[in-house]
Amino acid sequence: MANGWTGPAGPGLPAAVAAREVVDWLSTVGAESLAEAEALEVIGLLERAKGAAAAAQARLTVSFVKGRDAAVAAVEGSGEIDARTARQRRAAARSEVALARRCSPSQADRHVGLARALVDELPETMAALTAGDISEWRATVVARGTACLSRADRLEADRRLAPDLDRLGDRGIDRAARRVSAELDAESVVERHRRAVASRSVSVRPAPDGMAWLSILGPLVDVVGAHAALTAAEQARWVATGDPARDAARAGDERGRGAWMADTALERLSGRGEGEVQPVEIGLVMTPAALLPRLGDVSGGPCGHEASNGPVEVPGWGSIPGAAVREHLARLLEGPAAGAAEHNASGESAETSAERERRVWLRRLFTGPDGRDLVATDSRRRLFGGALRAMLMMRDPTCRIPWCDAPTREIDHVRAVADGGETSAANAMGVCSRHNLDKETPGWGVEVRRSGLDPGESTHMVRLATPTGVVYDAQAPPLRGHGTHPPPAEEAFSPLERYLEHLIAAAA
């Protein structure tokens, strides 16, 4: 396909043009009426086409990356750049792959690793993928299961697995790959298990219904031991302590086993005592109608259930119902539930009501008239800090580079200070650590296209240009998250302004 294409799009077309034609052709599949047998045949052929497309992506990825790496190696060998700069330039090339594949840089690194393994060390698996006999995921499973082997052993494992690749499912291929690896080089498998300890980590991801998963990846013995400790603690809560108040509080606790273990684990991880509020600030972005449920009734907006349960955004994570947030705020202000012990484990007095209230803050964030975008302020300082940094972290909770969902780690100047750039919200963008370095690599460029401050202007937007000349636009997300519906443009006053008007009229 590198030189031309003969197929639905026509003969002899350049590769890029042919690929676009194929995409356009695929968008029409299904428009015509097909018999059942023919429909199933097309479904199967399209599944094979996905594998063949993944194989083509792998070949092109290896060609692109090897070319860039060779160019960097030549410059490094001449002494023009040091090893650190060379590593950064190689990483920037992978980031270009990420943009082309519309994924994060970490995913692109995995795609590049898989492509190199398929092209250089797993020819039989690559042949099966090219023919569409296996999916890209099953090729990934083979590469992952044989990653600990030397090149010679990996070629042998690939040869042994080849006859069964088109007959086994995901789990079957995974078990077969690990079994062959253990037979060829048991010592490397043991060493792989030892190295896996270095990959231990903690992660958070949103869950449905205002919940979230906290995951801990660690050694099996330690994780099972932590779970056993929680289980033992849950069982011990039914044992009398001799303290009438504490025993009465435990007897009145109606939480189930799972809920109790989850609450206890979160309390211990955050350093809170029983009944204490969360000492870490968590941003909750909500409309006046979500905070004050009766606001919609007197302002002409939505009312009833919709007004009181409008979505509240936790920047960078997702939305939860307004009613749940109000319950959370009330719980923070109320403190420990009735019947809870008046003293903590160290004998200190429980937190007073005034101390609890000082821990609960409502911060006002002003948006534009449509309630969508955060209004910015300027700073004369060289670094982004204080209220300006906090505001920008709220505006850009995740990296602004397209398809990178990594949390924002740096608030960076779009136009460098050395080039006359200001320390302002208009000249700022939130990025992850990797993209902060990528954009400083030769050939990359970023410029502000919209400040987000002018009346009638849409949200803040920057334009990213890569060394290959491809440009990508990156807009700041809405303050309340994508999918929120702004009020009609013809409304002259915001719901809060109409609510204040109502109060003034009532007082008069």
TrEMBL record:
InterPro entries: DUF222 (IPR003870), HNH_nuc (IPR003615). Residues 387-437 form the HNH nuclease domain. This is Uncharacterized protein DUF222. It comes from Marihabitans asiaticum.
